[in-house]
Amino acid sequence: MTPPPDGHAERFERCFERNYRDIARYCARRAATPEDAEDAATEVFATAWRRRRDLPSEPDDRLWLFGIARRVLANAERADRRRTRLTWRLTARPAPVPAPPPSAGGEAAAIARALAALSPSDRELLLLTGWEEL
């Protein structure tokens, strides 16, 4: 059974129709790419939909949406900075050289020495190919 309409969905729909273009343009002016802007505008209205019971009346709904958009864009920028920092840390650190288990024979130690002699990028390529089957 469908719950009786509470009017929140209709108010949201009217708010969306009146404000989507302006919110999308706001995001486009501040996002790095058109795709990021589209994702941000979509996230703004997804957030507004989840919080539709909190949707203010006109004209305050417009300001409320811009506040959500500002936070969505700030969160996306922080996430991008975190990804960039992580990428730099991961690429700056060479792949670890696996140590042979203590019970391993001379062949395992020879493999560990050969891996240690490789450049970090060659070692990573070999490990991904051989052990991870990539």
Structure characterization notes:
It contains five helices and no strands. It has helices at residues 8-30, 34-50, 60-92, 106-117, 120-130. The two termini are 50 Å apart. The model has no long low-confidence stretch (mean pLDDT 85).
List the helices and strands and how they pair.
Layout: H1 8-30, H2 34-50, H3 60-92, H4 106-117, H5 120-130
Give the rounded overall mean pLDDT.
Answer: 85
Q: Given the structure, what is the number of helices?
A: 5
Q: What does the largest sheet look like?
A: none
- Poorly predicted ranges (pLDDT <50, ≥5 residues)? none
Q: Measured on Cα atoms, how large is the radius of gyration?
A: 26 Å
Strand content: under 5%
What percentage of residues falls in helices of 4 or more residues?
A: over 70%
Q: What letter string, H or E per element, gives the SSE order?
A: HHHHH
- Secondary-structure-derived class: mainly alpha
In total, how many beta strands?
Answer: 0
Q: What quaternary form is this? A: single chain
Task: Label the overall shape.
Answer: rod-shaped
How widely separated are the two ends?
A: 50 Å
